[in-house]
Structures are given as C-alpha cells and as structure tokens.
TrEMBL record:
This is PD-(D/E)XK nuclease family protein. Residues 21-71, 108-255 form the PD-(D/E)XK endonuclease-like domain. Pfam families: PDDEXK_1. Residues 286-326 are annotated as: Disordered. InterPro entries: PDDEXK-like_dom_sf, PDDEXK_AddAB-type. It comes from Myxococcus llanfairpwllgwyngyllgogerychwyrndrobwllllantysiliogogogochensis. Residues 289-298 have a biased composition (Pro residues).
Amino acid sequence: MTPSLEAPSNSPSVIAGVIQRLSVSQLKKHKLCPRAWYFAKVLRLPEPSTGAQQVGTEGHAQLEHYLSTGEDVLGAFAKAGAHLLPTPGPDLLVEQPLDGAPPLTAGGIPFTGFIDLVDARNLATDGVLRITDHKFTSNIASNAATPEQLADANTEPGLQMVGYGAWALSQAERFPGVRELELEHLYYQTRGQRLAASVVASVPVEHIAREWRTKVEPQVEAMKTHAQAARASDVPANYGPACTKYGGCPFMAKCLTGENKTMSLRDKLLSKPSESVPTTDAAVDLPAVLPPDAPQPAPVQMAPEVAEQPAPKRRGRPRKAPEPAQATSDLRVLFVDCVPTKHDGPRPESLTGYVDDMHHKVAQAGGVDDVRFAGSDSPLGFGKWRGALAMAARVELPPPGIYTALGVAQSELMQVIVEALEPSFDVVVRGIR
C-alpha cells in the first residue's frame, strides 16, 4: 500500500490569509536561510537574476521540446546529455505540474511548480518510477550531488527530490503499484568540456513518506511561524555559507545593517528588478506569502533636473585644462600596525571605533552581546561570526580617510575587519614585524 501524505482537514484554516501556496524552491530557500526567504517571499523584495539562470532556462526549454516532440533542438550544453535521456514519446510526463488533482500539500498548504521529467516506463514491470530534474552547472565534478544527498530532505538537493517523490506518492491512481522511486539529477556542464552525468538515488516509497513527514512537514510549520513575523530581525538568519552561495545573498546589506536603514548604493543595485526570464522553479513561484502588515514601497522622490547653463565666453587664448587627479580626501588609506610619521591633510583616525560599530551591528542582528562568545544555538556560533562580520564590513565601508589599525594580532575582531577591508582600500601600508 502506498503511504498516505494527506494533511489534516483542519490545517488550511490555521494558515488562511498568511501562506497561500508553496513551492519546492521556497523550501530550498527557507532551508538555506529563513531570513532570506522572509525578505523574498514575505516582504517581496526583488531578487536579481543571473546569466547562469538564463542558461538554465534556455536549456530546460530545449529539453522540454525535445522530450515532448522528438525534434532535436538541443543546444551545445543539453546535447552533451542526449545519450542519458529516454527516447522521446507521449508517455513521458514533461514539465509535470505539482498542483494537479490531487495537489501536493504539506501542513495543509498546496504546492505549485513543475517536475522536469517523470518516466513511468518501468512501473508496470518493476514497480519503479523515475523522476528527473535537469541541472545546468559550471562544473559537474565539484557541484554534483551524491545519491545519499538526493535521498535526504535535510540537504538542499534532497529537499527538492523528496518533494517530487512525495508528489508521486500522492498520485496513487495514476501510478498504481509503485514500490521504488529513482530520484535523478541529470547534470549538463556549461564551462570547459561539454560533459553530462546522471546521479540516481533509488529509494523505497516508505522512505519518501518518512522524509516528508519527519523533515518537510516540520519545516513548513516553521515557515508558517516565520511568515507571521512583524520584522525580519525576528526571523533566524543562517550566517555563513548561505550568505555567499549563488553569487551572494541579495539581502545581505539589509540583514546585517538593519532593515530600517537607508539603502546603500550597493543594496539598491542588487535589489533592482530584472526583466530576465526566471528559472523553471522560479517561473511559477508567484508571490505566495501575504502577511497582514506587508509594507508598501514608498515612491522614490527624484530631485528636479536643472538645465546646465553654458559657460560664459572668454577672450584670448583658452586656458589649458587641468589634468585629472584623484583628491586625497577621496582615498581610503589604511596603516596596519604602524603610523605615518609625516602626512599632509587630515590626521589619521583609529579604526577601533569602526570595528566596534560593526561588531555591535552584527551582534545585535545575531541576538548576542559579543559575537566571539555566541553559543551553539546562535546563528553566529561555531565561528560563523567571522564571515558575518567580514560581510558587514564589505557592505558598509568606512568613509574615505586615513586610518590606523594597531595591535591587530591581539584582536580577533580587528583581524577579521582588516582582512575584509584590504581589497577595498586604495592604499594599505603594513608595519615591519
């Protein structure tokens, strides 16, 4: 008998008006960092798309057309994996929606999204159903998941594939007699040599039902709670690798410096909406969370343009234009474990005040008094505070000027800040030890 994945009948009333729908991509985003999910899906802040996403979108479209019609429209990347694909035919389920009848649900919330490929050709004879997700990646050797990860909902790739497997279990009439699921990631390399590889996890249906019930359902309950938070700071943040994954979190500045702070130029650029086509998962990831107090964006006030007046004409020989030069006041200069003996211009300023300010902001965001003593239950624990502090410094550089950093070896905070700031300073002078 296929394990049941039906939710209690009274669940939808608990979430009415808060979370309308979910997607596997939302599960993955929340698993990576709950606060990033809150920014994207509750506050609905825009996220920039990347060139890699565009490559994936085009590749998915080519594969969908090929598997549905048999017409070879595969580009260079997708063609490298043609030998790993099943023979095209109408019996293959291509771009299978999750919100069919019955839809996939967790905690009473319906899911939306699409599965790239469902192959039931071995179902009647072996009781095996294969579910495939196409992955375009720059390097298969370093980025491909393992079979163990595909079967574990506590991992990012496993969370996705277990979700797809849970959908299959909800379709008992459509897939009678299914005993085993083959969860496949089919990788296509986009840099260097044209390569493709298949990674498959074969798991019994009981395993999928258990993973969904014990790992995904509790996560959805946590998402319900996080969706009702009044402020982003009330939602836990996963400082560390999540901040730099996929090219860097677009909400990093807001997360580390406070959501009420005036947006920096970098934050504005990162938050600029893109007109690029989203990836397959994101294409159906509509605004899903409707908080009761969702903020409305205020219109941007633009200063009126002033017409430039032509310069008055001068008699005689025109003056020679001065050569461009960068003003000293626009430079950032850092003296590490040394001080300048002679200087023209403003007096050097100690970096200690800036370090203390950055430390206070990160500690406040992580809910601790001192990041160095963050416990194991803190998002800054296990040394993750170093990455969070470094990113806070890169996001909010000190004003242009001359700074001194003394006693660096005796201060962990100063060490992290100095290493983070060095690439952004115009001049760095280190003392001889």
